[in-house]
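Appendix C reproduces, verbatim, an entry submitted by the partner laboratory led by Prof. M.T., so that reviewers can inspect both the input and the predicted structure.
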Amino acid sequence: MAHITELDLPNIDALLADDGDINIGYLHPVGQVAVASDPHNALAMLRRRPDESLADVLLRLDAAVATAIEHGEFTDEINA
């Protein structure tokens, strides 16, 4: 399990530097979610898994942002 202070999130960092955003919170009735968007698209929408730490969901979000940017494959665990 990773700790927040130890995280390296280069893809989220680049997204934020390029006017993107991330949101983490509770979405009824889905539960806890983490969403990353650029100014035009939602790149990744993740459900936080049971017993998944915040650091771990952020690492998954960072990887999903990389997949969206590099391969054009968007991750949607909310509407699936």
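The mean pLDDT is 94. Additional entries are available on request from the coordinating office.
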